[in-house]
Write a structure and sequence with these properties.
With 97 residues, this protein is mainly alpha-helical. The protein has helices at residues 3-7, 21-25, 28-55, 61-94. It is elongated and about 65 Å long. 4% of the residues are buried.
């Protein structure tokens, strides 16, 4: 079997590689904004469920805990990404021109 025949085909179909028109039109700022809005939405949902549980509405405790944990994990991921971006920026600024 020739190696050239194996390398001509893509590993993933183009639809799974993120080459559709919707993702191409979004820039970095739009993707970042959507991600931050998603994290904010998770936090607001957790707050809403917590307030409903405290007020005595019929809300299961495990739903409150799951929502709070989702919000915490999303925030932790966001902070980690921010730290990596700041670290990359600082590394670029230290480069000699």
């Amino acid at each position: 079997m020739r190696i050239g025949a194996m390398t001509r085909e893509p590993v993933l179909p183009p639809s799974r590689l993120g080459t559709d028109k919707a993702s191409e039109s979004q820039g970095f700022a739009a993707i970042l904004k959507d991600a931050l809005l998603s994290v904010d939405g998770l936090q607001k949902e957790a707050d809403k469920l917590t307030e409903a549980f405290i007020s005595g509405a019929f809300v299961e405790i495990h739903d409150v805990v799951l929502a709070a944990e989702k919000a915490r994990l999303a925030l932790d991921l966001t902070v980690s990404i921010r730290n990596k971006l700041v670290e990359a920026y600082q590394e670029i600024m230290r480069m000699q021109i």
